[in-house]
Every structure is written in C-alpha cells, then in structure tokens.
Amino acid sequence: MLPSEFKAEVARGGNGLYSLEFELKRMVLAVQEFMVMSGRAIANIFRRPHYWSDVLAQMDIIGVGSFPIVALTGFFSGAVLALQMYDTLATFGATAKTGTMVSASLVLQMGPVLTALMVAGRNSAGIASELGSMTVTEQIDAMRALGTDPLKKLVTPRLLATVVVLPLLTIIADLVGVCGGFVISYFVMRLSATQYWTSTYRDLALEDVAHGLTKPFAFAFAVALVGCYYGLRTRGGTQGVGRSTTQAVVAASILILALNLLITKIFVRT
C-alpha cells in the first residue's frame, strides 16, 4: 500500500513533481484504485439492496440510446467489407464466398470491437461526465453522509446494465452488418441472394459465434468501470469534468483493443 502522504500528493496534482518515479507511482496507484473499485462493484452485485430501477434506467440509456449509432456502424461496416472482399475474391473466382467473409469478419472482430468502441465513446464519456459532475458538486459526499454506498448506487447498476445490453447491441450490429453486406453484394456487385445468404449461414461455425459473443461481456466491464472510475476521481471543477471525460474515452478504447487481442489469442490457442 502506498503511503497516505503520496496519495495526498497525487490528489493535489503532484505540485510539479513530474519525475519518472512519481509518474510510475501514480500509475501504480491508479491501477490499484481501479482494481479495488472494480472488485467492490462486482461484489455488490451479490449484496442487498439491489437498485433494479437504476439498472433498468441505465439499460434504457446505454442500450436504447446507443441503438442508432450501433446499427449505422454495423451497416456501413458490412457494406465496406462486401466491397473489399468481393474484389479480392473475384481475383480467385470465389465471389460466392463474399457472405462468408463478411459474416466471419463481423462476428469475430469488427462487430464486437466497433460496437464496444461506439458505446465507449458515447457512454463511457457520459458516465464520466455525470459522475464527475456529482463528485465536484459534492453529491457523492452527501450520499456517503446519508449512509448510501456510492459504488452500490452508481457504479454497480451501470455495470450490470452494460453487461446485459452490450452483447445484445453486438448481435444487432452483426445482423445489420450482414444485411449491409447483402445490399452491396446484391445491388452493386450483382451477386445472387441465394449465394450470399447460403454462404453466410453455412460457413459460420458455432465456435465463431461463441468467440464473437464472449468479447462483449469483457468489453462491458471496460466501458462501465473505466467511465465510473474517472468520474469518481474527478477533481478541479468543470475543467476536471472535461478532462475525466476525455480520459475515460481514451482509456476505455485502449482497454477494449487490448482485451480484444488477449481474447483472440486465447481462442486461437484453444
């Protein structure tokens, strides 16, 4: 555990102490605080009271609110994949496999990752700004004074909501993306509908679907917990809220890409 004097120094911004040692200690402290917050938020899932109304409200904000941007992202991603794959496959006389390439690319990689990045850009920023505003206006301290655990009231419902809706949004993005690939293949490339849809569902293995749907659950923790972490550690008034919002989006995006690499490596090995 780092000394309390160092924690106070970090909270004050370091007072100009930007040595390598200080930066490394600050990073270690940040990781430590994030892991502690994450562990408590997950443990609160199994403890009473449960704020189900807050969970449903966050599911509406995160899930329904993100539906349009996720659907558009999936459609245009599928359309672009169809354009690229058709030209490549035409070189080998295998244009009938366009549906296979589009569906596999979306289900395995582009669908989960792009959906998580879109949700992170929209909701990690929103969570960080909302909790950051509550922090700088001392609403979080007021909750503690009233005997309410801020992590249980604010963090756990957002985590549960994201874990539920992000896989659903990923499925929607995959389906819309495959439809986008069909639109381009049928109306632009003049590929028959039978060829496209037959190759799409025949060549997509169950293992690929399991792989693609495992990622959103891991990404959900990054989206929700990173946004909550930066929101709760906001300092410095309205400028601090802006910094926390930016940091939350950047950190969540990097963590999503790192988790994607890790999960893909695990599935490739197994």
Please summarize what this structure is:
The protein has 270 residues and is an all-alpha fold.
Descriptive account of the structure:
The mean pLDDT is 85. By secondary structure, the chain is mainly alpha-helical. The chain is 84% helix and 0% strand. The chain has one domain. It has helices at 4-11, 20-43, 52-91, 98-136, 139-145, 150-187, 193-202, 206-232, 237-269.
How many beta-strand segments? Answer: 0
What's the alpha carbon Rg, rounded to whole Å?
22 Å
Uncertain residue segments: none
- Strand content range: under 5%
Number of helices: 9
SSE run: HHHHHHHHH
Structural class by secondary-structure content: mainly alpha
Globally, the shape reads: elongated
Q: How is the main sheet built?
A: none
Please tell me the total number of domains. Answer: 1
Mean of the pLDDT scores? 85
Q: What fraction, in percent, of the residue positions are helical?
A: over 70%
**First-last Cα distance:** 37 Å
Descriptive tags:
elongated; 270 residues; mainly alpha; 9 helices
Chain-wise SSE layout:
Layout: H1 4-11, H2 20-43, H3 52-91, H4 98-136, H5 139-145, H6 150-187, H7 193-202, H8 206-232, H9 237-269
Helix pairs in contact: 2-6, 3-4, 3-6, 4-6, 4-7, 4-8, 4-9, 6-7, 6-8, 8-9
